[in-house]
Amino acid sequence: MLTDEELAALYGSINEATATGQRDPTLLQVMADAGLRVSEAVALRTQDLRRDNGRITAITVHAGKGDKDRTVYTTPQLSDKLLRWLDARAGLGAGKGLVFCRIKGGAGQPLGVRTVQRLVEHLALQAGIDQRVSPHTLRHTCATRTLRATGNLRIVQDNLGHARLETTRIYTHVQDAERQAAAEALPPVDGEGAAAETDPLAQIAAALAGLPQETRERLAAALKA
User: Is 65 a catalytic residue?
Assistant: First the structure.
């Protein structure tokens, strides 16, 4: 997953002065904020966006994995981006239909899944993110951030469209690993109330050694911030 700083860097790597640069931040944020699969994002149609009082409040995902429709609610930031993109999209001659479509060489035509995968990989390199980033990374980031914000695994399950809660439980592992690292990094205290004499660097190294690579990378990025 990406840290908030990495996610901001990813968005910041897009040149919004171009036509595709007006589309791409919203495309990425649909996956990072709403947790859509890349196949769901490229299939999204304008009529799938629910409007209420001038905002886009929800997205209907049709026939996602398992052929089950679901509703995902938008963040205010994603709503604003969608509204701006829809205005820009109309001016580019895309017409009604797909929310995210080709701008050059066949305006209005569908984007390919592989095209979006290459786009995300390219932007991550431009942003200087030191890990492989894919559309699934954005979906993973959405799930983890939602779980942190709500503490409710069922909400994450519904947003991602998982049929089984066990599939969603993978996102608790990052939190557990971070909590374990925090606990093991606490210095021991002897019976007199004074910290025991131990090597703090050795303690931290030992705590980090058992963490997944992804979590170690996130902690390293946080320390650099």
Answer: yes
